[in-house]
Design goal:
The protein has helices at 2-15, 18-29, 47-51, 151-157, 161-165, 174-183, 202-214, 222-228, 230-235, 263-268, 317-329, 336-340, 342-350, 355-366; strands spanning 56-59, 62-65, 67-70, 109-112, 170-172, 194-196, 272-274, 277-279, 333-334, 408-409, 418-419, 431-433, 436-438, 485-486, 502-503, 518-529, 538-548, 552-553, 569-573, 576-577, 588-592. The chain has 599 residues and is an alpha+beta fold. Among the domains are: 2-112, no CATH class; 141-279, no CATH class; 553-599, TSP-1 type 1 repeat, CATH 2.20.100.10. The strands form 10 sheets. Strands 15-16-17 form a 3-stranded antiparallel sheet, with no helix packed on it. α11 crosses α13 and α13 (342-350) runs antiparallel to α14 (355-366).
Length: 599
Amino acid sequence: MQKHVMNRLLILSVFLSTQQLLAIAAKCSTDPCTNIGGGEWMAFDDEKSCKKLEHCCWSGKECRALKFSEFKTEGSASKEKTPSMKFKDNPFNPPNKDKARLLPIGPPIFPHCPPPMPFPEMCHPRRNEPFVIEPPMNIPYCLRIPCSKDRHSQSKYDRDLRSCGEQPGCYFDRELYEYRDAFGPSVLPGVPVCQLAIRTKILPREAENVIYMYGFWNPYFTNCFLNTFHDEIMEGPPGCKLIPLLEAFHVKPKLAGWRGILPKECGYIGACWMKGECLYPLNPKSLTIEVQQKYDFNKYEIPFGRPKCQHFNPSNPYTAVKSYHSCLSAGCSVDSSITMKYYHYMFAIGNTMSAKDHWLYWDLVLSGVLGPHNIDSVQWKYNKDVKFGARPPPPPKISKPVDNAFPFPVPNRGGAKSLSMPPLPRRGKSEACGHIFRPWNFRPCPPDKLPPMHYNKYCPYKPLNLPRFPRLKGSFDGCCDINECYISRSDIRNAYSGPATYVTKWSSWSHCSVSCGGKGYRYKYRRHVGPLVKHNKIVEKDTESCYNECAGWGRWSEWSRCPNRDCARQERSRECLPEGSICKGASEETRLCNASWWC
């Protein structure tokens, strides 16, 4: 239909005058299908309905009225001619009308579809335009970020609705403002009243044209912007195409958004929708990212409502250790309660090994050589499905007597009884766990018990329903969950996915350089670990002085008092110094109070 109309107008341009053709062109601008006001923009939003009209064409993403312009030759003016132009200015007619008797054929006029108008000239906001006061998505309160990085500017926006609305992509929460005005900042602490909802990088770029034309951003252009750049927003930032590269580094991308986020909402916050998840893009300028891991426990920290970075599986020690490494190598942070239990997780994995392998495995863990990043490379067999608190397998029973077992009589009133001494370890090593001595056929000393971690267990993100106050419209979904792998809320604005290099925990202190009687030194290390680090490079070394006293027995204590009975015995004891050392000999002695012949 549209092509037929254009061909017919081309034929008419040969026989009709300029005034007649311009009258036909004027009909296009007054067609009933145009918008209210007789403008060029049509009321049809789909291409199929637009092409059914005789004088309409589809330009870009809009239905436009056909335009008619004169045939232009080289050197001719680019401006369109009007019927009121003088005859002598027409280059297609002879200069002297008395010398030529030609038909009054004017310059040919060709219909063409006008190019799409740029943003925001093509926008025609209405009074009931959506997304002026309310944002296009309901972001949970705990995941909202302030509109400005500057505290003074943000404080102004949190008090003034107009100032907040003049910032591109920012929205003012009136209900939260009334609660804050009445009860102070303790209501939903840390949640901004003026939030940055539309975070795509396209909006600041296009908002410059609106600010240039009007001097400030008008929220009435928000809906027009979302419709005009819908395809570009849904395509995501350029870093979205680089996310598959993370598989080569065995790194997972960071999660963006909130629970139940839609693909359209994922595009509005400047993230990538891939495989049913909203993910942060890679930074095209820099592949690697930094990680800010906190190892110290902070009892004043609010663990609720932190943005989830990756899925963390603490169901058993092995999955907790692997999730720990996956979280840090992706540039996320791990909850301090998980970090404090690091050595307990590693020790629980060693409990599934044999006692001999457990000694070797635990030495490598304490020295920092073995960790979550290379635990799959160990040659010892262990159970990946071990549960917390599971007891290790018992040591093997000795069915035959060993060479060093010998009988000896024990004095007793009822006679002599034959006993056998337990077998001595032939190889391996032993250690003292405080006052308990563990031989080789047992296992290494477990890590010290953790002190109780009393953190703030009150979740401040809960709905408020008070009389004479409006109900909060925002969402609280997931705000009272504790995410073990998270990112800081201040990093949401410029968050990127990518491989990261993190620093491991400090290793245990080495043995003192002087074994006995003298001043020496001992060391501990921590290393760089990440997908881009080929070896466990030592990045930091801590040194402290130490003094090892030679092990020896202290003085004997006084003999205990003799009980008032026959055949009573006295006792005395001595300690092996320094504490925790191992000394040869007996630590206790007994003797008879009176040497009677019947005792």
